[in-house]
Automatic annotation (TrEMBL):
Family that this chain belongs to: Belongs to the glutamine synthetase family.
The protein's name in its UniProt record: Glutamine synthetase III
Keyword Membrane (UniProt): no
Domain GS catalytic, residue spans: 164-595
Membrane-spanning ranges: none
Keyword Coiled coil applies: yes
Domain called GS beta-grasp: residue spans: 65-159
Coiled-coil region: 623-650
PROSITE patterns, A to Z: GLNA_ATP, GS_BETA_GRASP, GS_CATALYTIC
Swiss-Prot/TrEMBL keywords: Coiled coil
Length: 703
């Protein structure tokens, strides 16, 4: 038996959470911090000093020697710079362990190496990190020791956001303020704060590290750039929800333990559809904490995998022809006194507040489908979206039978008078209980599905931060709320005006609702008829960020300035170009130094065998045919390699930004596919002994 884990005991033991703060902080300091967390009062330096000191003592008790401002630059991952707690040695040569309020609140990493999209010239390299006191500090333990991690926002010398967190916090303010206006219209004066709740389901692949280390493509680009399909793929669906293998189970156990200690409520784990693919889902938390937690989850998955001689692949499409990985961003809006604005109740047709909120979300998603699509775009996700396994690239909303029926009643008859009720599910066996059915079945193909009391945005890429998606969700719904509240606050007869508003919202934005099969070709045509955007690639998605509509939206809520949006667009184009450039160069390297030499050796062996067989007086036509075939593909490969090398070299002459990214997509990527095709053919005919690296079969089925 393996080590027993006492979950209740270890959960959150490395978090400087409310219990710890209450215990350790003087009453008045605790109170002031709570006010700062609610955004009601700025934290004073004197209080920060006390908090920092307690935090330090607590962290040192946990074995910490260093602290870091832990932040999320625009690279998709997290960044940290470690400082130890030691002060300058005194005259006896001894050091003290110190940590001041100033150090807690503000850090100053050299910002010049983080992407800024032109926001920060090199002569203004200063960047600041500021403590996000709403997200708890925690101690992270690993082989390098223990570190106090302070979740922070990261901005430039001139105050522009250089990270994911700053706009996220701003967008949370926006939706809070506008949601409270909506609640007030319905006579609610008791709720003081509205916060988006988020639960991010994380998909990932696990491969054996020894095999991984033989695959340069995985090492350099996170995905396989060559690889023929194995004889068995995922057609049997035998992996999905299958029993978890022991080696994976041991890894998951360690992952959970690490996450629990840091207060991440890892809850669900199972095998996913593809072989070697798995999923981890936490219990939902408030939006910014959930974002931190997801970043931590990705870090821990990678780190713990390594310890088990495994590698965790977070890339959206590590294996062509095999399902890719995404993240389902479950999103709802909840008041501080526990009201979920997206809870329809048992009879949604009578829940006027819910219907208004639903209409507002429909309007938001319909109006800003392009922004939502953009928020989920990253280089790897281009392999998924619209590729008949992940949600389509077209944004639509799934409401399910019950809500769709209520919406249609309102549109068609002007009133909704009933809600379809869930039935009993007859199990048919006397010893099994009959089950209560959900009012709505699931729909797996919708990018934005209503699932009971939340929306599930399923487009986000597995390696990407969930922050951009939530920034967009929070802000576009805030905008809908604002427009609705502006109008309804003026109404003489609220009930009537509200009814008309709901009907108007449903009627005008019903085109965004689609309950059918999102993978079908008919939907692509139907969506076009409805005028819904079908944005096929990241390069096409980015312009949404700087469209006048987006600038107006984000500026009006102070979530992004125009220059912040422009910088983000630049960063995305740059990221795209860089990633494809690395992939192309890796392919050139692998093809010329590994595959082609291996195939040449194989042809030599084949040629020798042709000679030997002929000399023995036996018909050697089969060997010759094989030699011809291999030589044909080898020739094709050589030509494709030459072309890829040429077009990749040319890329650096093209102006950076959209133009260069477009070139990478339209020219370099095409040349990459042309090189891959003959190589994959060769992999299927060349003797395995000669092939220079492990195959898909080795990677996917032998973990
Ligand atoms: P599935 O989507 O597989 O049915 P669940 O319904 O359990 O799984 O939820 C998936 C994720 O959604 C989990 O992270 C869960 O905590 C989160 N979630 C559940 N309810 C809400 C809610 N009201 N708001 C946001 N996230 C939620
Ligand atoms: Mg789900």
């Amino acid at each position: 038996m393996s080590e027993k884990i006492n979950v209740a005991e270890i959960f959150g033991e490395n978090v400087f959470n409310d219990t710890v703060m209450k215990e350790r902080l003087p009453k008045n300091v605790y109170k002031n911090l709570k006010l700062a967390m609610k955004g009601e009062k700025e934290l004073q330096l004197a209080d920060a000093d006390v908090i920092a000191n307690e935090m330090k003592d607590w962290a040192i008790e946990k074995g910490a020697t260093h602290y870091t401002h832990w932040f999320q630059p625009l690279t998709g991952s997290t960044a940290e710079k470690h400082d130890s707690f030691i002060s300058a040695p005194n005259e006896n040569g001894k050091v003290l362990m110190e940590f001041s309020g100033k150090e807690l609140i503000k850090g100053e990493p050299d910002a010049s190496s983080f992407p800024s999209g032109g926001l920060r010239a090199t002569f203004e390299a200063r960047g600041y990190t500021a403590w996000d006191c709403t997200s708890p500090a925690f101690v992270r333990e690993d082989a390098t020791g223990a570190t106090l991690c302070i979740p922070t926002a990261f901005c430039s010398y001139t105050g522009e956001a250089l990270d994911q967190k700053t706009p996220l916090l701003r967008s949370m303010d926006a939706i809070n303020e506008q949601s409270l206006r909506i609640l007030k219209l319905f006579g609610n004066t008791t709720s003081k704060k509205v916060t988006p709740s988020v639960g991010a389901e994380q998909e990932y692949f696990i491969v054996d590290r020894d095999k991984y280390l033989q695959r340069k493509d995985l090492i350099f680009s996170g995905r396989t750039l060559f690889g023929a399909m194995p004889p068995k793929g995922q057609e049997l669906d035998d992996h999905y929800f299958g029993a978890i293998r022991e080696r994976i189970g041991a890894f998951m156990k360690d992952v959970n333990k690490e996450l629990w200690k840091m207060g991440v409520s890892a809850k669900t784990q199972h095998n996913e559809v593809a072989p070697a693919q798995h999923e981890l889902a936490p219990i939902y938390a408030q939006c910014n904490t959930a974002t931190d937690n997801n970043q931590l989850t990705m870090e821990v998955l990678k780190k713990v995998a390594y310890r088990h001689n495994l590698v965790c692949l977070l890339h959206e499409k590590p294996f062509a022809g095999v399902n890719g990985s995404g993240k389902h961003n479950n999103w709802s809006i909840t008041t501080d006194d526990g009201i979920n604005l997206l809870d329809p109740g048992k009879t949604p047709h009578e829940n006027i507040q819910f219907l208004l909120v639903l209409g507002a979300v429909m309007k938001a998603v319909d109006t800003h489908a392009d922004l939502l699509r953009e928020s989920a775009s990253d280089v790897g996700n281009d392999h998924r979206l619209g590729a008949n396994e992940a949600p389509p690239a077209i944004i639509s909303m799934f409401l399910g039978e019950q809500l769709e029926d209520v919406v249609m009643q309102l549109i068609d008859k002007g009133d909704a008078t009933n809600s379809i009720q869930k039935g009993k599910l007859k199990t048919g066996a006397s010893t099994l209980p009959d089950l209560n059915k959900d009012a709505t079945d699931r729909n797996r193909t919708s990018p934005f599905a209503f699932t009971g009391n939340k929306f599930e945005f399923r487009m986000v890429g597995s390696s990407d931060s969930i922050a951009p998606a939530n920034v967009v969700l929070n802000t576009i719904v805030a905008e809908s709320f604002r427009e609705i509240a502006d109008e309804l606050e003026k109404a003489d007869n609220f009930d009537m005006a509200c009814h008309d508003m709901i009907k108007k919202l449903f009627t005008e934005h019903h085109r965004i609702v689609f309950n059918g099969n999102g993978y079908s070709d008919e939907w692509v045509e139907e969506a076009e008829r409805r005028g819904l955007p079908n944005i096929k690639s990241m390069v096409d998605a980015v312009p949404a960020l700087t469209a006048p509509k987006a600038i107006k939206l984000f500026e009006s809520f102070g979530v992004f300035t125009e220059s912040e949006l422009r910088s983000r667009a630049e960063i995305k184009y740059e990221a795209y170009a860089k990633a494809i450039n690395i992939e192309a160069k890796s392919m050139i390297d692998i093809a010329s130094k590994h595959i082609i030499p291996a195939v040449v050796s194989y042809t030599t062996e084949l040629a020798n065998s042709v000679i030997a067989v002929s000399e023995a007086g036996v018909d050697s036509s089969t060997q010759k045919e094989l030699l011809d075939e291999v030589t044909k593909y080898l020739k094709e490969m050589k030509a494709a390699l030459k072309k890829l090398t040429e077009v990749t070299e040319k890329a650096s002459d093209i102006t950076e930004g959209k133009e260069q990214a477009t070139y990478f997509r339209d020219v370099v990527k095409v040349a990459m596919d042309e090189l891959r095709a003959p190589a994959d053919e060769l992999e299927m005919i060349v003797d395995k002994e000669f092939w220079p690296f492990p195959s898909y079969g080795d990677l996917l089925f032998e973990v």
